[in-house]
């Protein structure tokens, strides 16, 4: 299976998950920042995919977030058209815990009738997205060195490591959810079309439940079969 990321990004060991969860829960910063961190740990999408998200992409009924190839530009916001990094729609099944968090965020940032509005708004301007450095700044306040311990991008490595170690999920399902670049163009076309969406839905719910189980102490992925 492909390595989680070719570029080195700091990420914690799985044994350190309980402390990470404890520090996130104890964080006293902006409420929206805490919710962004909790959500991104659950769905492990890339920074720009998260920060430039619009409410129109999220379907609460089907419990699915579809990140488009390209987003509508926001005036005076650089890179605001960035969508899914692989330049094709990225499907993110939403587990129970993610839906709960998104409903909390909706109370903070959704304006009635404005489905094109940003999910993660800036501190001082609701028409601007959350800053690129917001999550890493919060992690530093929690006591982490984001150049050595973990950064926001490191949530992807953490999730990928657990999913692989569990032995429960196919390589295609993990690779598709990580939205890694497929080197084989024929295989890429097939796997994108197939999407393995139902398995990925089960997989993300497993990951969320695995995180919850680690609140009471370290549980190895291969031991967690819920």
Description:
The protein has 226 residues and is mainly alpha-helical. The protein has helices at residues 17-26, 31-43, 47-51, 96-109, 134-141, 154-166, 171-178, 185-194, 197-213, and strands spanning 58-59, 64-67, 90-93. The chain contains nine helices and three strands, in the order H-H-H-E-E-E-H-H-H-H-H-H. A three-stranded antiparallel β-sheet has the order 1-2-3. Helix 2 packs antiparallel against helix 4 and helix 7 crosses helix 9. It is globular and about 50 Å long. Mean pLDDT is 90; it is low at 2-6.
Q: Count of helices?
A: 9
Low-confidence parts, pLDDT < 50 over ≥5 residues? Answer: 2-6
Query: Into how many domains do the coordinates divide?
Result: 1
Order of helices and strands: HHHEEEHHHHHH
Question: Class, according to the CATH hierarchy?
Answer: Mainly Alpha
CATH architectural label = Orthogonal Bundle
Based on Cα principal axes, name the global outline.
globular
Structural class computed from helices and strand pairing = mainly alpha
Fraction of residues in H or I helices = 40-55%
| Terminus-to-terminus distance | 24 Å
The spatial strand order of the largest sheet comes to 1-2-3
Strand tally: 3
**Fraction of residues in β-strands:** under 5%
Radius of gyration: 17 Å
Global mean pLDDT:
90
What name is given to the CATH topology? hpI Integrase, Chain A
Family: Belongs to the 'phage' integrase family.
Pfam families: Phage_integrase
InterPro entries: DNA_brk_join_enz (IPR011010), Integrase-like_cat_sf (IPR013762), Integrase_catalytic (IPR002104), Phage_Integrase (IPR050808)
GO molecular function, one term: DNA binding
């Amino acid at each position: 299976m492909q390595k989680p990321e070719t570029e080195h990004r700091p990420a914690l060991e799985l044994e350190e998950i309980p402390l990470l969860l404890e520090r996130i829960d104890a964080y006293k910063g902006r409420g929206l920042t805490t919710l962004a961190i909790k959500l991104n740990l659950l769905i492990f999408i890339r920074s720009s995919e998260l920060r430039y998200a619009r409410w129109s992409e999220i379907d609460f009924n089907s419990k699915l977030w579809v990140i488009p190839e390209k987003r509508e530009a926001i005036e005076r916001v650089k890179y605001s058209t960035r969508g899914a990094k692989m330049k094709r729609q990225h499907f993110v099944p939403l587990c129970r815990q993610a839906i709960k968090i998104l409903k909390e965020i909706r109370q903070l940032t959704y304006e009635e009738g404005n489905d094109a509005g940003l999910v993660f708004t800036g501190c001082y301007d609701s028409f601007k997205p959350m800053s690129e450095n917001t999550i890493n700044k919060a992690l530093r306040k929690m006591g982490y060195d984001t150049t050595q311990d973990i950064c926001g991008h490191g949530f992807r490595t953490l999730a990928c490591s657990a999913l692989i170690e569990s032995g429960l999920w196919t390589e295609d399902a993990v690779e598709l959810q990580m939205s890694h670049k497929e080197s084989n163009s024929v295989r890429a076309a097939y796997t994108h079309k197939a999407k393995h969406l139902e398995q990925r839905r089960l997989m993300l719910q497993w990951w969320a439940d695995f995180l919850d189980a680690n609140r009471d102490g370290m549980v190895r992925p291969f031991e967690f079969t819920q």
